[in-house]
Design a protein that fits this description.
The chain is an all-alpha fold. It has one domain: Up-down Bundle (Amino acid/polyamine transporter I), CATH 1.20.1740.10. It contains 16 helices and no strands. Helix 5 packs across helix 15, helix 5 runs antiparallel to helix 16 and helix 14 crosses helix 15. InterPro entries: YkvI-like. This is Membrane protein YkvI. Keywords: Membrane, Transmembrane, Transmembrane helix.
Length: 361
């Protein structure tokens, strides 16, 4: 059970980044649909658990140390090339969003210009990629429980301090920018781009154990944990939509409303999660292209970091609302491949059981 919980923590830590923890993703993908957004969040929870379980178990069966093996196993040779490219491209896109999110956090909480805040995050990310990445990510990953506690506190505060009727909130929600045309599509899109980002970690994580039950439970618990955080953040966004609509970092606004100390603590935790994700995705993108620990690798990481810094000027909110849905649509191929792989596995198991029963007569 301990191993499963560790896997679940890694799953949650990989998905939770600037967009998730800040509330910006939730605002565009769920809150903007009013009360229907909660049904979308439940749908996303089920998908997070199902897909996480399957990908980790595939990684366990293959005993893989790379997501490439898992992708080609479930997608086949030709589709595998396409999905592998999407994942690699998206890793860089997420890094850009993390840099933009850091800039917005520094500006909203500390009054530091967003460009300077983004540059600080870029320099820290580049420097970390030069050294022991795994150790740093493990340390920062330990902050995830603190984030969960903060999200719970903020959601409870938002719920008990709401002074707007649900009818009015639904009207306000309709005026918010949505990432998709309806709540059902939005819920699937949200899971799609997050799974595309998480599959490198989920696949490698599965390869660390040969026990399929432990691997599967890790994926399920991680998916449920993500879903609960998603629902809690949506509570905070929805019940205080009259105050936070239009903000880059809505959760930070609510934290500061509770107390300036809570706001500072939330900003530190948020920046740590952004840093965790930025290092993971930038390193993951670079290592897919070049061998780490070399001067060429360090040069590539530096170049990618500053290209990402330049791209972050597009703006955090705009990047979340543009890149994530595009990647979500592309990631549908990955979700479909996982479901088909699962169905085939069930049929194969069923046929084996029938054969056993026939042979026993």
């Amino acid at each position: 059970m301990k191993k499963s919980i560790q896997m679940a923590g890694a799953y949650i830590g990989t998905v939770v980044g600037a967009g998730f923890a800040s509330g910006q993703e939730v605002l565009q993908f769920f809150t903007s649909f009013g009360w229907l957004g909660f049904i979308g969040a439940i749908l996303a929870t089920l998908l997070f658990a199902f897909l996480g379980m399957n990908i980790v178990q595939i990684g366990s069966r293959l005993q893989t140390d790379s997501h490439k093996n898992v992708v080609y196993s479930i997608c086949g040779k030709y589709l595998g090339i396409v999905v592998d490219f999407i994942i690699t491209f998206f890793l860089f896109g997420v890094a850009v969003i993390m840099f933009a999110g850091a800039g917005s956090t520094f500006e909203q909480q500390f009054g530091i210009p967003s460009a300077i805040g983004s540059l600080i995050m870029v320099l820290l990310t580049i420097a970390t990629c030069f050294f022991n990445v795994e150790k740093v990510l493990t340390i920062i990953g330990g902050i995830t429980p603190a984030l969960i506690v903060l999200v719970l506190i903020i959601a409870a505060y938002a719920l008990f301090t709401m002074d707007t009727s649900f009818a009015e909130l639904n009207n306000l929600a309709q005026g918010q920018k949505s990432a998709a045309s309806n709540w059902f599509l939005s819920g699937i899109l949200y899971v799609s781009f997050n799974i595309t980002c998480a599959i490198p970690i989920l696949a490698v994580m599965g390869g660390t154990t040969k026990n399929l039950k432990i691997a599967g439970m890790g994926g399920i618990l991680g998916g449920i944990g993500l879903g609960l955080m998603l629902i809690l953040i949506n509570v905070g966004m929805y019940t205080r939509l009259d105050d936070i609509g239009g903000l880059d970092i809505p959760m930070l606004y609510l934290a500061n409303e509770i107390s300036p100390i809570v706001g500072i603590f939330m900003s530190i935790v948020l920046l740590a999660m952004i840093f965790n994700t930025a290092v993971g995705v930038l390193y993951g993108f670079a290592v897919r292209v070049m061998k780490p620990g070399t001067m060429k690798f360090n040069g590539l990481v530096t170049a990618l970091g500053f290209i990402g810094f330049a791209a972050s000027f597009v703006g955090f909110t705009k990047l979340v609302g543009t890149l994530y849905p595009i990647t979500g649509y592309l990631g549908f191929a990955l979700i479909a491949a996982v479901i088909i792989y699962w169905v085939r596995g069930k049929r194969k198991l069923g046929n084996q059981q029938i054969e056993k029963k026939v042979s026993s007569f």
